[in-house]
Amino acid sequence: MRAILLGFALGVWGLQQQARLPDAIVWFAGCAAFIVAMTLGAMKPRVRIASFALGACALGFAYAAVRAEVRLREQLPAAYEQRDIELTGFVRGLSEQRADGARLLFEVEANGAGLRDFPRIVRLLWMSPDRTPLRAGERWTLSARLKRAHADANFGLRDGEASLLERGIRATGTVSAARTPRRVSPDAMGPRLMIDRLRARARDRIESVLGHAPHRGIIVALAVGAQEAVSDADWALMRATGTSHLVAISGLHIGFVAGLAALIFGFVWKRLRLRGVPAPLIVAAPKVAAAGAAVFAACYAALAGFNVPAQRTVWMLLIVAIAFLCGRRPASSLVLLWALVLVLVADPWAVTSPGFWLSFCAVAAILHAIAAAGRVESRAQAREHDEIEQWDRVDPSEVGQRPAHATGPRLLPRITRLGGRARRHATSSARVQYAITIALAPLTVYWFSQIPLLGPLANAFAIPWISVLVTPATLAGLMLPAPLDAPMLHAAHAALSVLCDLLARLADAVPSPLWFLPKPDAFALAASCIGVAWALAPRGWPLRFAAPLTWLPLLAPATHPAPEGAFRVTALDVGQGSALVVETARHALLFDAGPGPESTHAGERIVAPYLQAAGVRMLDTLVISHSDSDHAGGAPAVLQSIEVRQLLASLPATDALWPNARARGAQTLRCTAGQRWTWDGVEFRVLWPEPGPLSGKPNHQSCVLKVTSAAGRAALFAADIEADVERALIARDRAALHADVLIAPHHGSRTSSTEPFLDSVGPLAAIFQVGYRNRFHHPHPTVFARYGLREIALSRSDDDGAARIDIGGQIVLERYRQTHARYWMGR
Questions:
Q1: Do residues 669 and 644 make contact, with C-beta atoms less than 8 angstroms apart?
Q2: CATH number of the domain located at residue range(s) 567-819 in this protein
């Protein structure tokens, strides 16, 4: 059975790694493999297990493919993107209130264009800050401008389109002003919407009671699973101490609540009498407690929005409860595998989320540690039993011959037994924490490029604190009517405040609470996972002490972005903006940092995480070409996350970025033509702006940088210069402009990339950093055609995602959406 369940899960995972969905030949091969596997099932046991596992794998692959075909069938035609379309539907889930309006999920019932296979669920931004919060189930007719589901695609970072596909979001957009939205009656009904309304009421109650309390967002997250209200300070603290998982309603919280519910149901049932007959005589109290725990856990998971950890916990509890009611006791590993399969049946795309892997691997590590602790406990209990029997066989007349500290024949064995239990409990808890830390370390590095060094210590007291004090008080506040709910919610917040203060002191006591590591490749990840299994193997396993050797590729990776005299340019996909990373053999430079909080938060979401995933612990130079927010907006987030030695920028003297950089220990220098330096045989030369006071609009002040390898191959970073600067550069030194790679000026605007400029540069490849369906319509069709007529290899971030160019003796261009293609891209 275990092999079959694992085979099914492997098949589902395999489908999510495909560049395209299988065609008829693959389907035929899969059906043939399934038939052969079932035919071989009657042979020898080992062959039968292998054949059943192969058949289950083919079944899982086929099931995930069918689900993908059905979901991808909903598609917005390209011709209808960014056109006003009248939609009629209702609000789903919890709307997220923002400064400029509300972000919500909208389930479409009808579209004014009369399109078939129209996306059923779209994500909208309703830019109306004066509106009251939208409620789940409210039916509206509105006009919206939509785009296909599209997300940034970057090396080393999670695929955002996979997350949209998992949630069923097949289009995104904004509510337009072409037509005034109007409320339509009646509101939509259904169990899911009823749950969403309950979640909204619970969130509103907490916010009304706690007001502007500093940790109000965490209480809301623990109650209903909505994390958008958690403050940036709380997120930073949780990440630094490795306790971010406590912010969400995890399996730990649901399991604790289920255990508490089991105690309450069992206690009440034992004292009930039904028509004069004690209730336990009708149904055994343990069975009622098991059923009540499962039901209560399902209700709490529904309140949390049924995230993956919540689903896993509910399935495990339901399986255990059903087995218990049927008089069976399944193995814990089998329960976990059944929960794994049931989660994937409900959501085949769950394997693309970090929560799926962290949740199941953590439970597997806990079960392994508990099993090991159980074996130790059995041996210890056997020894204690033998000691007690020896004391019982002692003649009472011999008691006086015992040492003076023994006051009775049974006192010493009781003290010994209590001390042994306390020691075993502490040892078991330490073993569980050790198993979780070891098991999740490779996955934490893979998904987040970091290991929280304080995680084991912080979780040792944060987990019981949240589980025993904060979560029960929060749930009690939700179940009690007003005004009795206020004291419980305030008590929950007070307990949480104490915990946050302790975590903050712990984080301040360590200079670097986070250990940043590059994202591991397949070999490093596989080797570290083997090392985890090796380290957690039972006692007596050969060479267990050598397990840490398998973690060396993960913890001490060999970084070689470029050889001596060569360099690598990575043009990040930050939407409508610019961010380029230049790496030589031993140095790194960031040219622009993408948009900031005023737009897409690219500096925080993309640039800083990419640098950490790429193993760039320090930037030798951060270049900010000019003050436009799509180039400079992400710089504060980069300065906060990555050590920067020097800020080289073309910014006004009053710009806040100057003191921000100096406060973090970076040298500051204005970008002016004539500056040059050499790193590892690679020359860096600034071509613009001219020395002297900055004048003109920001685009005219843009810093232009040329990077040249030892072999003479060059890349030109033109920022947002326009035709006037291009003419000035040509007049000054036409030969200096020659480069093999060009970052298209001003994102391909029609005011730049003039014919003389392109002829002067003579690039072999050009990169356009543009947002998908951006409102500026960059790159301009005429300009893009101008590049194409010169047979220049082109890459644009809205189509190709991030681009990576290795420049040395040769030029190698890699486009992310080609080398990391998945079947949902462009669909």
A1: no
A2: 3.60.15.10
